[in-house]
Design a protein that fits this description.
heterodimer, A: four-stranded mixed beta sheet, 10% helix, B: mainly beta, ten-stranded mixed beta sheet, five-stranded antiparallel beta sheet
Chain lengths: 456, 369
């Protein structure tokens, strides 16, 4: 049922999409009988109708419209200067209670029409003690329009209540008499109620777990975290219900992870950081003393990510994800850049610089806390990546290497898989003096690019 | 979360008694008119003069907003709202599954409750701050043309960030409190494992984004550990401002505020071990019959009423704790179950956000135990 509204290009009307029923007032189009003595100026060329203004090209701009008001009525409405509760008394939008019978008495919420109270069966009382949806009312082009502050949710039903007895009256010139009108029941008109629904696009499960770091299948007993990388934006609030750690018999390991209400997502919402409960990683803390470590050396485990984890669009993952790994001895040694092997590239090439570590390091920190500077201390532009299960780091410059001295700068907060950082193990033994460092420091690892290495 | 700052309260009470604020320094004086562009709404904390601090972890900043809610309360009595999640969702035009209530704070001046809410579950969820009056009526805190200020949290150094596009690093803000001219913010990186506590002077200045310290706590035996601070309160111990912090593996640790200075390695004193399989959620400090207590909500060990007796002299727990708990004595308050958020409502009552056994979420006023 296409319709051209005065100020919108393409509108599809879904006014009768769901129930198509008007509660308390016959059918949707039957409005002429509503003119009464108390509303003398109501002369309309068409019936008053509630409808959904919806454009497939911009579903988030869906709004609710009332058409069929007389020119006098819309003129007066355009001038009223009402507050939110006065507008809601005329036209309010409620989230439909999903077929659940409303639970009786209002609880002092936003003002709501009183006319629904009498003579209706419970199912007709669509308005509950829920507040009306936040939004803006305005009048333009002879149409009363409600624009919700937040987009109407596709697939969710809304009940629209229009109480024409709250229309400003012709003789209500002063604000005092308007006020009186707003609080008196001047006419026996029952409010129009219309159920509306924004169409829900078909759901397609396309999101997958792209990668889980660490990539290796042998991990230390005191592994500190996993990074879960998804292919699309993910929903929040259910992460810890959707990840499981199973032992080799398929039994779920209890309480292995640190559960934070805040959930540790990257700013884009595609990478989730899953920490093991540090209380079960660190020695001599109560959780570990009582329950043991979450991971035990020599055993095999599977990290499982449920398909039911919803992405930000509300769709399930395309498939569940499983990562099986074997647990090896705990790692208590901090990484030491002295032990890294550097393969310098040749000058006048763009061959990647490669650094080989004796152990796997934290993927995210490798991407952020290693960079290359030239002799003058300028950062060399380029891109980096990890290979061989985070035991190698490669840096490809944007422009060819020049012969000369360079250094790899390493932030000392760089961690290995067990949270040991450079110069500081995850657990600090207070009987062995360690540097009490707070401000991040850097370690420089020098290397030289020789022109002889290139045949050009 | 931790608006229950006694210093702030006493200032307010003093102002009310004087009956005139003429000449008194007003915290809103430094705020500018405009629209705070929140990317997310997380932890909340009230300062004096109706100033609400809102943590924006997504935007990595703290907003100070003039709520113009300076009290006094327009009505008395408790604040109880059943199915608050349904009502919040209805107001925002959606279902309870599509909203998250991130924090609760009570304005001590008016007794009105404030909720920080995400409308939507994805990273683009709309941030909303709602006000709940004693009649249970919900309204949105206006965010257009209001007086506000903003302080950005300093990020970890990343010299090559421009080359790599947007950093994946983010800072989860686990708690926040206003104490005597400073906003304390506890944060946890989603990459390196370190708890950061920042002290940001208020009024915010353009250049001073606050200082950052790293807090360790003495664990058992010979180890000391890094761990994220989950929730904390400010509390005067022997005339000295202390922060009492509950960590994720449930020790309760105290450290003096005056020690919080940049570049400091600070070792707190573990004053209690509160048991395993548990995450502390929220904490307040209150007085009953002349004695100070802490009330700590937990994920799986219920509500703990912890005595502060002897806390000033506590030497700290350094031995192994085999039987599960040690240090400051506490009672588990069986009547307060399912508490997810907690704040002080008035001198005799707490306001709690509770999930009932049936799954509903209620806002309840409950007597302080």
């Amino acid at each position: 049922m296409p319709f051209a509204a005065p100020w919108q290009r393409v509108l599809a009307i879904f006014g009768l999409l769901l129930t198509g029923t008007l509660i308390g007032c016959g059918a949707a189009t039957s409005t002429t009988s509503r003119s009464t003595a108390s509303a003398p100026s109501r002369t309309r060329s068409e019936p008053t109708t509630i409808r959904l203004a919806f454009d497939y090209k911009n579903p988030k701009a869906a709004a609710v419209e009332v058409v069929g008001l007389s020119a006098n009525e819309t003129d007066r409405l355009a001038r009223v200067g009402w507050d939110e509760s006065q507008w809601n008394a005329l036209l309010a939008i409620y989230v439909a209670p999903d077929g659940v019978a409303p639970d009786g008495a209002p609880a002092g919420q936003n003002e709501k029409p009183s006319d629904l109270k009498d003579g209706k069966s419970p199912k007709d009382h669509l308005v509950t003690d829920r507040p009306a949806v936040l939004g803006t009312h305005r009048v333009a082009g002879g149409v009363l329009r409600f624009e919700p502050q937040y987009p109407l949710q596709p697939g969710l039903a809304y009940d629209v209540v229009l109480d024409l007895s709250r229309l400003p009256q012709a003789n209500a010139a002063s604000s005092a008499s308007r006020e009186a009108n707003a609080h008196e029941t001047l006419s026996p008109i029952a409010p129009l109620t219309q159920r509306l629904q924004v169409p829900k696009p078909p759901t397609v499960a396309t999101t997958i777990v792209e990668h889980v770091y660490p990539s290796a299948n042998e991990l230390p007993e005191n592994l500190l975290k996993f990074y879960l990388h998804f292919s699309a934006l993910m929903s929040r609030g259910e992460a810890y219900r959707r990840v499981h750690l199973l032992d080799s018999a398929g039994r779920e390991v209890q309480w292995p992870f640190l559960e934070l209400d805040e959930e540790l997502w990257d700013p884009a919402g595609k990478r989730f950081t899953l920490f093991f409960d540090p209380g079960r990683v660190k020695r001599e803390l109560v959780p570990r003393l009582e329950m043991g470590p979450a991971l035990v050396e020599g055993k095999t485990y599977t990290l499982v990510i449920d398909k039911d984890w919803l992405d930000a669009a509300g769709n399930q993952l395309r498939e569940p994800y499983r990562k099986e790994f074997h647990v090896v001895a705990p790692d208590d040694k901090p990484p030491t850049p002295d032990t890294w092997k550097i393969t310098p590239p040749a000058a006048r090439t763009s061959t990647p610089l490669e650094v080989v570590f004796p152990e796997a390091l934290d993927h995210a920190l490798l991407m952020r806390q290693l960079w290359v500077e030239n002799e003058r201390g300028e950062v060399v532009a380029g891109s980096n990546k990890t290979v061989e299960a985070e035991t190698r780091w490669q840096f490809t410059p944007e422009t060819e290497w020049q012969a000369g001295k360079y250094r790899i700068q390493v932030d000392t907060t760089l961690e290995d898989l067990a949270g040991n950082s450079i110069g500081r193990p995850f657990e600090v033994d207070v009987f062995n003096s360690v540097e009490r460092r707070v401000e991040p420091k850097r370690v420089a690892v020098p290397f030289e690019v020789h022109s002889t290495g290139s045949e050009e | 979360m931790v608006s229950r700052i006694r210093v702030a309260l006493s200032v307010l009470v003093a102002l009310a008694l004087v009956a005139s604020t003429a000449g008194a320094a007003d915290l809103t004086a430094s705020l500018q008119n405009g629209t705070p562009e929140l990317k997310s709404a997380g932890s909340l904390a009230f300062g004096p003069d109706g100033v609400l601090f809102v943590a924006d972890p997504q935007g990595a900043c703290i907003f100070a907003i003039d709520t113009q809610d300076r009290g006094p309360s327009d009505s008395a009595g408790p604040l109880n709202v059943e199915k608050i999640d349904e009502k919040v969702a209805a107001l925002l035009g959606t279902t309870p599954q599509e909203i998250m209530i991130n924090d609760l704070a009570v304005n001590p001046a008016s007794g009105k409750a404030y909720l920080s809410v995400s409308r939507g579950r994805g990273p683009t969820a709309a941030p909303v701050v709602l006000r709940v009056d004693r009649a249970g009526k919900l309204s949105q805190l206006p965010m257009k043309d209001v007086k506000f200020a903003k302080a950005s949290l300093p990020d970890a150094p990343d010299p090559a960030a421009q080359q790599r596009g947007q950093s994946l690093r983010a800072q989860a803000i686990t708690d926040m409190a206003y104490v005597d001219g400073r906003v304390f913010v506890a944060g946890l990186s989603n990459e390196e494992f370190a708890s950061k506590l920042r002290a940001i002077p208020f009024p915010f200045t353009a250049v001073d984004a606050g200082t950052s310290v790293e807090i360790f706590h003495g664990a058992h035996g010979k180890f000391e550990t890094r761990s994220p601070v989950r929730t904390f309160v400010a509390y005067k111990v022997g005339g000295e401002d202390q922060l009492l912090a509950a960590y994720t593996c449930t020790p309760l640790v105290k450290f003096p505020v005056k020690m919080l200075s940049p570049g400091q390695h600070l070792k707190g004193t573990t004053v209690a071990e509160l048991g395993n399989r548990n995450n502390p959620l929220d904490m307040i400090v209150y007085q009953k019959d002349g004695t100070d207590y802490l009330l700590l909500a937990n994920s799986s060990r219920g509500m703990m009423k912890i005595t502060t007796e002897g806390i000033d002299k506590a030497e700290g727990i350094t031995d192994k704790v085999i039987d599960g708990t040690k240090g400051q004595k506490y009672d588990t308050i069986g009547a307060m179950k399912g508490v997810m958020q907690l704040d002080k409502f008035d001198k005799d009552n707490a306001l709690v956000l509770v999930r009932t056994d049936a799954g509903a979420m209620n806002l309840d006023t409950v007597p302080l135990p």
